[in-house]
Amino acid sequence: MCSCRASGGGLVQPGGSLNLSCAASRRTLSNYDMGWFRQAPEKEREFVAVITLNGVRYYADSAKGRFTIYKDNAKSTVYLQMNSLKPEDTAVYYCAVFMGGRDYYTGNYAYWGKGTLVTVSS
Predict the structure, then answer these.
(1) pLDDT at 93 over 70
(2) How far apart are CA 40 and CA 10, in angstroms?
(3) In sequence order, which ranges of 10-100 are alpha helices (DSSP H)?
(4) pLDDT at residue 36 in the model
(5) How many C-alpha atoms does 67 have within 13 Å on its Cβ side?
(6) CB–CB of 23/78 below 8 Å?
(7) CA–CA distance from 38 to each of 30, 51, 74, 89, 112 (Å)?
(8) Beta pairing, strands 116-120 & 10-12
(9) Across the chain, what does the average pLDDT equal?
(10) Is the pLDDT of residue 2 over 80?
(11) Which residue in 76, 66, 58, 63 sits closest to 22, CA to CA?
(12) Which of 20, 22, 47, 119 could be joined to 95 by an S-S link, Cβ 3.0–4.6 Å?
């Protein structure tokens, strides 16, 4: 069962980088695809990235080329490396477990935990 405890956020200047971590469990990472989401002020929560059990990665257009999702099963942790950050990346970031659906972008996710705030500002 995924605890989905996101951490690693903070204040960073435009163009900077952050690495977010999502603490889960060995069982969860061994059996489920894991995704990252974010919710910016006054906006709906949106999909950012997902990594499948087979290591296939999918990204939102806004994240493609700048963000990298990866996991370490031994540490029971999923990561989101964020580079070339922009002010529009400012949001609370969450991780969650993919439970199924038509696709990874619009499918169902569960086991939401406390998010971590990323603020990109000069």
Answers:
(1) yes
(2) 14
(3) 26-31
(4) 97
(5) 28
(6) no
(7) 24, 16, 25, 9, 12
(8) parallel
(9) 94
(10) no
(11) 76
(12) 22
Residue where the block lists tokens 């439970």:
99
Q: Report residue 88's pLDDT band, with 50, 70 and 90 as the boundaries.
A: very high
Length of the chain: 122
**In degrees rounded to 5, what are phi and psi of residue 74?**
-65, -35
* Structure token digits, residue 10: 């903070």
Angle, CA of 97, 37 and 83, to the nearest 5°: 120
99's tokens = 């439970």
Beta strands in the chain (DSSP E): 5-7, 10-12, 18-23, 34-39, 46-51, 57-59, 67-72, 77-82, 91-100, 108-110, 116-120
CA-closest candidate to residue 46, choices 86, 90, 105: 105
Residues 105 and 107: their CA atoms lie apart, in Å, by: 6
Hunting for tokens 């950012």 — which residue is that? 48
Q: Which two tokens stand for residue 78?
A: 């999923």
For residue 100, what are the β-bridge partners? 108
